[in-house]
């Protein structure tokens, strides 16, 4: 560590000290996220578009969330290529990859909070005409989320200082936006704190409404199961997005004295945030009854089709052998 060095040089010094074993960890987890996230989100989109006759408000949010996750995982091969040691990547491609990650990370955060708020008001105020009218605006809400995240992420890379084009920084460069008060404050409050409060309030409202419902009191609804599902959603949200925002806050506080532990926390925080892309489809499956029924029905139909084809092949073989 050089005490008189710039944050960029301190950051790059720590990056250069990264061991081969650590790079293998990044490659392994990014490959896992890419494969699982790609397959699971494609399955989710097929269910939403091909096996859904009526598109509910929740389905609109989940479709946009699956698209956001799919865009994110599609950019992960660039990061995998970088961590494999091929660091001569065009700076423009690095900027686009980083920007897509930010857009889709915060898009996912806002969509998750909107989906939770939509469920909360639907359960807590089932007879309210105003709530029903507001829920019909789910497509406009999703459009607003996309516009807000894109408009908030573009200035970070448009206004960044020019770098030496012969020296590609890519994913090993110092996150300059972590030193800007407006950017860090808005990320921690609007990008993470606000959605977290919405999730907590909506979850508490859901739990309270379920406990007071007649269905739960007569054991027609498993309230404990629903509460566990809500808790799992909150844990996944915190586990995926808290490490990154905590590291961002620590870098802002210690921007004049960058340690290698800060660098590692930031890089691992980004990777953990990407985990959300493959966990969201599992949340759809275990917390949304209709989604689970459609997936199970599609799997059963495919199994029956496969069994029918195999039995037909067996009959043909027997006929040929007789």
From TrEMBL:
CDD domains reported for this sequence: 7tmA_purinoceptor-like
UniProt GO MF annotations: G protein-coupled receptor activity
Entry superkingdom: Eukaryota
Topology of the protein relative to the lipid bilayer: Multi-pass membrane protein
Keywords: G-protein coupled receptor, Glycoprotein, Membrane, Receptor, Transducer, Transmembrane, Transmembrane helix
Transmembrane portions of the chain: 25-49, 61-84, 96-117, 138-158, 190-210, 230-253, 265-287
A single cellular component GO annotation: membrane
UniProt subcellular location: Membrane
Alphabetized PANTHER family for the sequence: G-PROTEIN COUPLED RECEPTOR, LYSOPHOSPHATIDIC ACID RECEPTOR 6-LIKE
Protein name (database record): G-protein coupled receptors family 1 profile domain-containing protein
